[in-house]
Amino acid sequence: MDSEYLTQTPYTDPGPHLDTLVGPAPLPRDPAALGAVVRGVMLHREEGAHFGYTVPEERMREDAESRYAETVLRILGERGDTPLTEAREPEARFVGICRDFALLLCSLLRATGTPARLRCGYATYFPDSLNDNHWVTEFWTADRGWVLADAQLIGGVYDISFDPMDVPRTEFLVAGDAWRACRDGRADPDTFEVSSVPEIKGWQLVRADVVADLAALGGVEPLPWDDWGLMEKDGADVTEEELALLDAVAATTAAAGHATDARRPEAVRRLLDDPRLAVPSEVVSRTTFGGVRVVSLPVPARG
C-alpha cells in the first residue's frame, strides 16, 4: 500500500529494542491484538489506584516526558524481560499519558504493516470533563477507511459503551472539529479543557490542539505541552488573517479522517510550509514536572 503513514517517524520508530522485547513469537498484525499489547505494558500516571499501585513520582515525571517510542521500549526492557505480548504487573509497566498509548500503538501498527497516525482532540468519555484534551491513534482499514482507536480504554479500566478499537467520532472530536464547532457557535470553547489542570481550557487550548493535530498528520508527533508558532500567541494578538488560516487547518484536519485513501493529504503538506504552522527545530516544552524548557527536535522527512 502506498501510504506515508506506513513509514515510521523519528517519534514512532521503535529502534533496536522491539526485536529484543518481542521474543521468539512475532507481533500480531491484528490492530485489536496490538491494542491489547499496548494496554498490557502501559499504565497511565493517573491510573495507579485502579491497579492498587502507588506510582513512584520519578516515574510520573520521567516516563511521561519520553518523546520517542524507542525510549518507551528501552524503559520497558529495563523493567522486565517478559515478551512484549505478555501483560505486566504495574511495577514493570511504562507510566505514561494518553499520547504514549497512542504513540506506541501507532509504532506497532506501522511496524506490522498497517498505516497509522496520531490524532489530537477531545474525548467525551471521561467522567471528569465534557471534552477532555486527549490523544488517540487512527489506523487504516481497506473496508472502513480511517478508524479511531484508544488503547488506553482497553481492559475495562474505564466505563465505556463502545469498542476501544473503534471509537465513534461523536465520542472523540479531532481538534479541527472542536475548533469549527466553537467558531460556528455550536460549542462553548470553555468546555474544552485539560481535566487534570482545569485552568487550561478555551480558545488558546483548542487553537494549540489544531496546530498539534496538523503536525501529527505531517509526521511530527509532539508532546501535549509543546508550543510553537500560532500556539504561543495571546488570544488578543491573533489576527483575522491568522484565524482564517486556522479555519483552513481545521477544515483540512477534520476532513482527513474521512479520506478515501491512506495517503497524507496534499493540503497538510501545503499548510506545514507556512512558518506560522511549521514545527521548528526547537520548541518550548511546558513540562508538567520539569518546568518550561526549550527542546531540540529531529527534522522530519518531507514528502
Automatic annotation (TrEMBL):
InterPro entries on file: Papain-like_cys_pep_sf, Transglutaminase-like
Cross-referenced SUPFAM superfamilies: Cysteine proteinases (SSF54001)
Originating organism: Streptomyces aurantiacus JA 4570
Record-given protein name: Transglutaminase-like domain-containing protein
Location of region: Disordered: 1-25
A Pfam family per the record: Transglut_core
Domain Transglutaminase-like: 90-153
Ranges annotated as biased composition (Polar residues): 1-11
Domain of life of the organism encoding this protein: Bacteria
